[in-house]
Design goal:
The chain is of the alpha/beta class. Helices cover about 30% and strands about 25% of the residues. The protein has a four-stranded mixed β-sheet, with helices on one face. A four-stranded mixed β-sheet has the order 2-15-17-16. The chain is globular and about 65 Å long. The structure holds uridine-diphosphate-2(N-acetylglucosaminyl) butyric acid.
């Protein structure tokens, strides 16, 4: 098992290219189950989660090959198996996105129930409700979601829940409805750019979808979808993470190949805390000379501040002047990074879904444990400015969602290396 060793670094300087979005490419790969044709997905990032999804697709009879440009091409060789096994689903919740396409195209799906994760229970009741509304019969048996349907039928479905809409739930119901008979109206659809990217891919496959990007998706079912080629949108969370790296070290960092319009709430927060932001057509640059200022961050569904950047901003705000409050409205228990940041001398008090961050003047390097993907990124960011050395263990979490993070950071001047963790079990 590897660890990342991060030492106090100079202010980061330079430009970094952003990869394709993890949370777009995963459901897009699942969507290729909806056709018997080949599909080509450009800009697919080289990530652990993408490898896991490719393995799952292989099990489902749709292997994918990477070409020299990094594009993934899928080929349908066998449409018989409709089981997504526990071993794969347990390592990556996004596997649940094969449920809708399998059901729509193969008439049945057996997908391991994803269960909880380190930041709390992650139910799939809205996915099930949506697919049932389309006429599927669904049961939970032996830890699996067992779904069946002859031909799905269009319906009017509300996908809002106690914490807003559901990103992968919207993906599942949207994919299933493309092959349903008649019209489906999804109200309370998730508006995340990754859902819109999936919808655009489905349209390229021949799906009829109106309202892309809005909370009301209208889908007119078709009899079949064909193969398509698609370029995945850039990863706004990866971009935000490198912008925090620039801001936290008091440097100047430009992220290239991004969609600044998908980062509006995040860029506003940077400006609020005293970071200068320049936006171009496909780049964003941050620069900080003065002190970091305190603020309030509330995570909410898109277009508000994303939960997937909450941990990284907590690292940043732990060095701000004054007291900041972070409220997590998507996953009230997504605070595993607090305990590790405390080991690095941050001053943070967790009270229910809030974290009260009392700015400190310096952080201290320490051995810390990565608990989930974004928490790990936050610890690396803190390590860049902490005095001494920080060892971030269990780095496989970070490899799930960041492509070559140590190389990209090193190119900006960071002191970071990947080493084998001799102490790991
Ligand atoms: N929820 C329900 N019922 C459901 C589904 C969700 O109550 O049936 C609740 C969840 O418990 C949560 C909220 O609704 O409180 C939102 O969850 P959502 O379903 O939108 O999350 P997800 O689709 O499982 C995706 C991303 C996550 C990201 C969330 C929120 C993918 C593959 N994953 O998860 O990304 O945090 O949306 O934006 O798209 C990450 O990349 O690190 C990551 C965790």
């Amino acid at each position: 098992m590897d660890k990342l060793v991060v030492s106090e670094s100079p202010p980061l300087q330079g430009e970094v290219s952003i990869s394709g979005a993890k949370n777009a490419v995963l459901p897009i790969l699942a969507a290729t189950l909806l056709t018997e044709d080949s599909c080509r997905i450009e800009g697919a990032p080289r990530l652990r989660d993408v490898n896991t999804m490719v393995r799952l697709m292989g099990e489902l009879g749709v292997p994918a090959e990477r070409d020299e440009d990094g594009a993934l091409t899928t080929t349908v060789v066998d449409e018989d198996n409709a089981t997504a096994p526990y071993d794969l689903v347990k390592t990556m919740r996004a596997s649940i996105t094969v449920l809708g396409p399998l059901l729509a195209r193969r008439g049945r799906a057996r997908v391991s129930f994803p269960g909880g994760c380190v930041f709390g229970p992650r139910p799939v009741d809205l996915h099930i409700k949506g697919l049932r509304a389309l006429g599927a019969e669904i049961d939970i048996e032996e830890g699996y979601i067992e779904a069946r349907a002859d031909r799905l039928k269009g319906a009017r479905i509300y996908l809002g829940g106690p914490f807003g809409s559901t990103v992968t739930g919207t993906a599942n119901v949207l994919m299933a409805s493309t092959l349903a008979e008649g019209r489906t109206v999804i109200e309370g659809a998730a508006c995340e750019p990754e859902v819109s990217d999936l919808a655009r891919f489905l349209v390229a496959m021949g799906a009829r979808i109106e309202g892309i990007g809005s909370p009301r998706l209208v889908v007119d079912g078709v009899d079949r979808l064909h193969g398509a080629s698609h370029r995945v949108i850039p990863d706004r969370i990866e971009a935000g993470t490198y912008l925090v790296a620039g801001a936290i070290t008091g440097g100047e960092v430009q992220v290239n190949g991004v969609r600044p319009d998908t980062l509006t709430a995040v860029l506003e927060k940077f400006r609020e805390v005293g970071v200068e932001v320049v936006e171009g057509p496909d780049f964003v640059r941050v620069r900080r000379h003065g002190p970091l200022l305190n603020t309030e961050v509330v995570t909410l569904p898109y277009p508000a501040f994303p939960t997937d950047l909450q941990a990284q901003f907590m690292a940043l705000l732990s060095l701000a002047d004054g007291v900041s409050i972070i409220t997590e409205k998507i996953y009230p228990e997504r605070f595993m990074h607090v305990a590790e940041l405390l080991r690095m001398r941050a001053q943070i008090r967790k009270e229910g879904p809030n974290a009260i961050v009392i700015g400190t003047t310096w952080l201290s390097g320490a051995p810390v444990m990565a608990s989930d993907l974004r928490a790990s990124a936050a610890l690396v960011l803190a390590g860049l400015v902490a005095r001494g050395q920080t060892e971030v263990k269990r780095v496989y979490h970070i490899d799930r969602g960041y492509e070559r993070i140590e190389e990209k950071l090193r190119a900006l001047g960071a002191n970071i290396t990947r080493e084998e963790d001799q102490d790991a079990p």
